[in-house]
Amino acid sequence: MSSLYKLSIKGIRAFEPENEETIQFGFPLTLICGQNGTGKTTIIECLKYATTGDLPPNSKGGAFVHDPSLSGRSNVSGQIKLAFRNVNGKSMITTRTVQLSKKQSRGSAAATLTFKTMEGQLTLIEKGDKISISTKNSELDAQTPIYLGASRSILDYVIFCHQDESLWPLSEASVLKKRFDDIFEASKFTKVLDNLKNIKKEMATDIKLIEQSVQHLKIDKDRAQRVQDKLVSMNDSVDTFTGEIADLNIKIEQKEKEAEQLFVSNQEFQKTLSDYENLLMKKKSLEEQIERIKSAIELLSDSDEELMDKKDNFAAITEENKNKIQELQQTQAVLNSELKDKSNDYNTLIRLDGSLRAKKSEYEDNIEKISDLIATNAEMLGIELSGETNDDITVFGSEIDRRLKSLLKDEKKLLADNKAIDSEKQAQVQEILTSISREEQHQEYATADWNSNNYKLTTLKRRFESLDNDESVLDSRKRELADATKKLDEKKASNEIKDLDEKIEKSNFEISKLDIELEELSKKVLLSNKQSELRSKVNFLQESIKTKNASIEKLIKSTEYGYQKLLGKKVDVNLGETVLNEKISDLETALEERQRSVIKLSGEVETNKAMIESNRKAELENIKKTNNLKERITKVIEEEEIDNYENLVEELEENYRNVMEDVNTSEVTKHFNVTAISIAEKNNQCLLCKRSFEADSLQKFIAELKLTVDEKKIKAIHNQSVEIKKELDDVKAINLDIINLRECQKQIETFKSIKKELQEKESLLLEQLQQAKVELQTQQSSLDVGLNLRRPISEIVRLNTEVNDTEMQVDELSEELNDFGTVVLSYSELQALQQEKNSLMKEERLKVNNYTESKYVAQRELQRLENRVKDIRLQISKLETSLSEIKNIKDSITETEANLEKLEKNIDQSKITLNELNSIKAERITTLKQVQEEHHHAEKMIHNDVEKVSRLSSSFKVLQEAIFTFENHDSVKLEENTSKMQQVSSEIDTLKDTIEENLSSVSALEKQVYESSRIEHNIIANIDYRAQLRKLEQAEFEINGIDIENAQNRKEEYQEKSRKLRQEITNLTSQHAGKIGEVKQIKDQIKGLHKELETEYKNVNQAYHEEWIKLQTNMLVSNDIQNYSKALDNAIMKYHSIKMEDINRILGELWSQTYKGSDISTIAIKSDVNLQAKGNRSYNYRVVMVKNASELDMRGRCSAGQKVLASILIRLALAECFGANCGMIALDEPTTNLDSENSESLAEALNHIIEYRKAQSNFQLIVITHDEKFLTHIRGDRFTDHFYRIQRDEGNKSRIYSLPIGRIQDS
């Protein structure tokens, strides 16, 4: 059930816009008081606006908002926050914001005010988190009353009724009817009845149309049946032909099997023919291969065994030479490594030599600088120079150290003397300042004491004049206390309240007993009518099931295509909605991912564009650097040679090595050729292969060897080596530029590659972005389809659930009918017993009301006596305290006057002393300043001398230290490094010579290996040639062994048998095709008939059945609507009569408890039935009073006080009847126009209501009044410990204060 928690107001009426004012509503009572005009009614207005959105009466144009003129602003924002618990116990907050703007109009002195309603908010607090439900004001207006559990009319007219509209129960008849109709929501039910009548009228027309449709469908149904009979006959013919076709299929299969067996049986001769052809191809391939080998080799006459031996020997010799080459290459690698290490050492020594020579140059400069320094400053220091640099340096260093120490000593002494003098003078000044400060403090203390005592004296005199010192009043109050206490004790001793409580309890027990008996009678009455009601319910529910199933089928047909397209399956009436919602959720998730992907790709496209621009700028810088490097490099080599720089260097190094090898090889070759000539002439054989020469070849060989020995060629090779060495050194010098150039060129390619990649990436990203957008649109389309399906699928599931529930209800009602029992008494007898028990209960309730009234009277009298005793005791206490306080005040006044006189004397003496001390202070401060200026000048002069000599000493020592370091350390290192450089250079030359010798040996061995490899290859080729000849002989042997003639004969026999079988299969296939053609014609006719059924007579049986069911259903529904209209009309009447009876019962009880006059015994609300033209009922309302057993209309016949009281009680009764879930009500100035007795009785009635309903967890009574005496009579201290007071502050703004309940009567 709902309840209010807290209200916050800012910028409304007199509440200022800067700060919030809050009220926390308690249970069961909240009291708010304040003088007229302080803003009490604003609380009700804010509650009403927060819950319904309705502005207070007469507040158009912005009167509800704090006026901007009062705050000096152009616009003011007002805000109302209401925290409450909804009917489910959840915490919620509704926020309403309004704005009032002031704008000066042209040509008018008056400003124009503009009122605007801003966006509000309704939030739910769930587990500490705020969940926004709505921000639209229209939705807040509709939803807030629902969450509070009360209609808008109840909130507006009953719970938060404005003071200006509080007398609406006694307004004119049309206004009263409208408000009661709103409270009963009569217009809603009237519209329902009108709609039911319109529906029944429309259904009568539909029934006539459906009857005609049923007749037409019956004719089509008969025609369709005749077409179906013809289809049956044609299907029989198709079955006959189908059997014949099956027989032909069997014969065709048999012939195909015979052909297959014939094929299998003749595979042997096919294999023979295939082998013969393969052997012929193999022979041809071998012949071609033999010819190819023969043309590429030199044929040897040796046997196969001799060829294999030669092959093995050549392999051993070749392996030995390869091992030697490998050993020499390993040695070469070691020598190259040593040469590289020595070169690195040599380069290190060269760098060190350069560093040391630079230090030597710096040393010579330092000697010159120190000589100039000594010569320049010798006269200042009083030194005679000898001309020897070392002696002059020693003498100058000693003298400058002595002079610096002397100056520092003099400076230190001067500073110490000056500091002592300054300290003495400052101490004298500080002494006089301390005396002045102490005297000023004494004067300040005396002045403060004088002011304090003077204020105290004034306060005491004012207090003395305000106190009452009449002791006779105290005695009179004590006598009144004794009388009041005696009356209170007598009242308590009478036990009147206890006796009344016992009587009330006894009557309540009787009422409970009668209530139980009435309940049993009601059960018996219900039992007698239950059987007939159950049967009618079963029939109604069964017809409802049929109607809902038809609706389900119709909805499934309309949604099946879209549903199956989206989900790939048919609609499931049980799980269809769940599956669809899951699909929609997946589609929404996918849509969000696509949206994020599009955003991400857009960002990547922009980033890629920025990277392309950055790459372009870097590429331009790199091109500029490349051009500068090329300009330096092309001075040494050609531009086209830059890319092959390493090859060029290697080529030059290789040329240099080759030239050096040629130089060495020429000598070796010369020696080798001489030896070869000698061996050839002597032994007639080759030096290498040991083969003998024929007569002609020997002379030719010797002549060729002699030609190779040429001295001029050897000299030319040596000159060429010198030129290549120079070119190699020049090319190596530009190595660093080449490296930088290549780095730049690499970067050019890198930039181009990056540019290309970025452009490709941009194209790819744009393509991906376009694709993502297309996918996003596709996803959105699928989601739209799913969302469009959601409502009909939800309706299908709902109807199916209702069908299942209805079927369960039918089963339960059927079981209940089976269990139905009998009733002992008749219906009339049971009604007579009910009337008898009701009469007894009314009598007992009347007794309880009388006893309760008597009890309230007794309690009120007792409370009045107790309050009287408390008031007198408080007055006596105040008088006693006042008399005691007067004596103490007189003594304090005398003492304070004496203190004031003494303090005035002390202040005068202190002023004289301060004048004398200030004169002395001025003289001493002047003396101190003069001394400080003299000391500062002397200290500055000596400090300048010290700084000058210190700088000179520092410079001299730096130069002296640098000279000493070079003479004792760096000069020795320079000599040692020069010696090491010479030694390393010699070692490098030795290594180079060794490397050249090793390279010559490797070249000679590699040449031998190459020649051996050629001879070995020829031997291996001869061996392979002879192997291919043997394979050719084997193939010819296998060809001669095949019987090719027999295989050819068997092939011809197979071909003849195969031809005959193919002819038989062709004939059978022709017959088969003819049968199939006839079947096809019949099937085409069947298809035409089917098409006719599917077009002209499609679903004719179903349509006829559905229309017939629809006709029967509509007829039943029409009857049901008629019955339902009558039942609803009767239910509305019964509900109205029950509610009016409850309202009048509560109203009568409240009036009897509250109204103390004797002219009106009770009041009631009468409702007169009025039949309208359409047959609907409406009600006219009036408030009547009973005078002398006669009913009279109250309007125009009662006093203002009676109007107020009747209106309040009617609102209380309506709140009791219509606010079960919303147990709150606010009363604004309920005592208006009431005399003291009726005001007191209203308070007692409210007290009784609170007492009765305080057990209800959500009951809240909010009372707003200026009559604090009325609040006392409510006895709020029994239900709350505080109350709220609203009053204006010094800025005339409304403020809310929470005060203890005990201060409720404080003014």
Automatic annotation (TrEMBL):
Give any Gene Ontology cellular component: Mre11 complex
Name it.
Answer: DNA repair protein RAD50
Catalyses which reaction(s) = ATP + H2O = ADP + phosphate + H(+)
NCBIfam families linked: rad50
Q: Where in the cell is it found?
A: Chromosome; Nucleus
Q: Name one GO biological process term.
A: telomere maintenance via telomerase
Q: Which residues form a coiled coil?
A: 238-345, 474-524, 623-669, 741-816, 848-920, 974-1008, 1044-1103
Name the Pfam families for this protein: AAA_23, SbcC_Walker_B
Any GO molecular function? double-stranded telomeric DNA binding
Name its species: Spathaspora passalidarum (strain NRRL Y-27907 / 11-Y1)
Q: Which Gene3D superfamilies match?
A: P-loop containing nucleotide triphosphate hydrolases
Alphabetized UniProt keyword annotations: ATP-binding, Chromosome, Coiled coil, DNA damage, DNA repair, Hydrolase, Magnesium, Meiosis, Metal-binding, Nucleotide-binding, Nucleus, Zinc
Q: Which PANTHER family match?
A: DNA REPAIR PROTEIN RAD50 (PTHR18867:SF12), RAD50 (PTHR18867)
- UniProt domain Rad50/SbcC-type AAA: residue ranges: 6-258
Q: List, alphabetically, the InterPro entries matched.
A: P-loop_NTPase, Rad50/SbcC_AAA, Rad50_eukaryotes
Give the source's domain of life in one word: Eukaryota
- List required co-factors: Zn(2+)
Q: Which family does it belong to?
A: Belongs to the SMC family. RAD50 subfamily.
